[in-house]
Amino acid sequence: MSAIVDFLNNIFWGYILIYGLLAVGLFFTIRLGFIQFRYFGEMFRCVLGSRESDKDGISPFQALTVSLASRVGTGNIAGVAVALTLGGPGAIFWMWMVALVGMATAYAESTLAQLYKTHGPDGMYRGGPAAYIARGLGQPWLASVFSVALILSFGLIFNAVQANSIAEAAATPIETMLVGSGMFEATPEGTAAAFTAAKAIIGAVVAVLAGIIIFGGIPQIARVAEFVVPFMAGLYLLAAIIALVMNIDRVPGILSGIVLNAFGLQETVGGVAGSVTAAMMNGIKRGLFSNEAGMGSAPNIAAVATPAPHHPSSQGFVQALGVFIDTILVCTATATMILLADVIPSAELTGVNLTQAALGDHFGNLGQIFVAVAIFFFAFTSIIGNYSYAENAVVYLGAGKGGIMMLRVAVMGMVVWGAIQAVGTVFSFADASMGLMATINLVAIVLLSGTVLVLTRDYIRQRKEGRNPVFVVADHPEIAPGVDKTIWTANNG
């Protein structure tokens, strides 16, 4: 089984997706007229246009924060550090490039998710890639395959991985307390047992906290994300700004060095070296994993939003901004704090340890504690964000309330399991599952790119006329099949 999974991952991530995601991003960037650059301000207008939601959906701002809850995870802390270690500072430049073209992909997939959404059995808006694959392409069987792959990867295994990150970061102090209390002997065997017990305790606590939120459904997840995500991301960016100000004289050299290193014109930046090939491959991979553009994940929550203005494209703009925030802001914050610190990445000092060492250099012990706290919040919010995607997939498969209940229990179980176990092998299975869903999604959005173009031109035309864009599906019979005509009417706008 491991051999099969490794073979699939080599195909998906070594060939199809690395080039496919970039190619699709460039395709939509060009076909939509560089929309992510020309209409960057529209993204903020669509996010802030309405903080309210109707009874059937969540607000655009809530949809953005839930998608960021999933996007901004431990990879933004540990993954960026690994990219720097393996690829050098130039990897950050290629992360930027992936994000900039990925914004167009994110716009396209979330616009389609809005267009093909329907009312679920609970009355709430439901949709996502499964909806536009089934109703837009007329391939319900392929939509079912996509949904199963999403549930396995985002709903279950990735949540175990996030729980493992929390447990590894927080288990040591609890282990010390358990040994000090006399519950475990102060021997290597006793310490190892205490460490395992500490991770089990952490897993149980995280599972209970996650359960309190996910049993409230997507509206509850949205309310939590709306508060926690801006707070945690804001604090993290504030720490980066302080580090930049403290080292302001070095900032121009670091930023220019990132660009020069990406093309082999400067060998080292901030004491970190890397080759052009390593920079490109590691930066592209890290960027794709982090911002999820084209993966088919964020469209699941984009479909639940009540867009403002009432047009599918407005939610596309919102999710394009999510890619920008995740990579251009949060990932760059991690990279600059590392490059400005007096630390050198190595095989021994990488991942979370490298980021902790960097913040420790900037802020002392407080910096190391801050990283541990950030890991908890980034990982925890990823768990609830990932769950929201999986719930949409369960609804599409027709599992009903019973299926949703089973998913919630399974997520809590995977959190406990992931906190205790090494998740390397299972993580490879999740990579294969995500590779399958991403491949299906990329093919779907390219085949439906004509529909995206029609929606985009309709939105921009109304903006240029000085109107608040409203999509009326009756005016576009060429894309009407499969669209819920009761949602996209002039009266709803």
From TrEMBL:
Keywords: Cell inner membrane, Cell membrane, Membrane, Symport, Transmembrane, Transmembrane helix, Transport. The chain crosses the membrane at residues 12-34, 77-97, 141-161, 200-221, 227-246, 320-341, 369-389, 409-430, 436-455. Pfam families: Na_Ala_symp. It is found in: Cell inner membrane; Cell membrane. Its main location: membrane. Gene3D superfamilies: Amino acid/polyamine transporter I. Coiled coil: none annotated. It is a multi-pass membrane protein. InterPro entries: Na/Ala_symport (IPR001463). Belongs to the alanine or glycine:cation symporter (AGCS) (TC 2.A.25) family. This is Alanine:cation symporter family protein. It comes from Paracoccus fistulariae.
